[in-house]
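#struct-pred
JK: can someone run the complex with S-adenosylmethionine? inputs below
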Amino acid sequence: MNHKTAAAPSWQYDERVKAGVDYEDAAIAAEYDSRHAKFRDFEKDARVVMQLLDLQPEHTVIDLGCGTGAFVIPAARSCRKVYAVDISQAMLDRCTEKARAAGLKNVETHCAGFLSYEHKGDPVDAIVSVAALHHLPDFWKAVAFKRMYDMLKPGGKLYLFDVIFTFPVESYQIEFNCWVNGMAEKAGQAMAQETIVHIRDEYSTFDWVIDGMLERAGFKTDLKRSDFPYSLSYVCVRP
Ligand SMILES: C[S@@+](CC[C@H](N)C(=O)[O-])C[C@H]1O[C@@H](n2cnc3c(N)ncnc32)[C@H](O)[C@@H]1O
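RT: done, structure tokens with the ligand placed:
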């Protein structure tokens, strides 16, 4: 048996069980864009990702943990098809509304997760995952990377952005305080509180853990950089 054929027994880790922020909550989904707009520029960020992936009009893309469609909507205007995948129906509903309002017919939504999404279409040119993978404990991140690898065409690219730590472990207390205080200054108390929930209940890890997982999944890392405090962006290729 391998990771493609093994049926998951019911006692195994269930990615639908929420860790941290409850994105199933319709009120959280409704406020998501305005909260995040305080420290993100959705359109500009999406343009940068599309450039890094060299996304072309004939390309197909999967966004895993797409949320309300921060990347899905701009990407769907520029490429053939976007598979918008998220474990939260409330977040996907917002994404669907935005796609409809923008008159986009090439967005296919799936309420599923990193570990459960079964891609039925042809292998895709690119996979994007922004600020979502930290919802999985480390073992399951490795499984998720292997699944992503299998959904990509040879030569296909993965763009990963997430909260990933590069500081020495012994300075974690100082770094966590800096992160929470910085978020309060930049985006207000609600986002600072969300940062606390992230640190306490979610599963962000070190870059050297992520580097090893990507390599073992078969990816070649073309770019690794920090555009945002306590976060990293990776562009990886399936050779
Ligand atoms: C911080 S939001 C990021 C959303 C979006 N990518 C963005 O850039 O705004 C995290 C998202 O990950 C989703 N999520 C959590 N666990 C997941 C899983 N196991 N599989 C797929 N999505 C998941 C949540 O429902 C939520 O929409």
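RT: quick notes.
The two ends are 24 Å apart (CA to CA).
The mean pLDDT is 95.
JK: thanks, will look after standup
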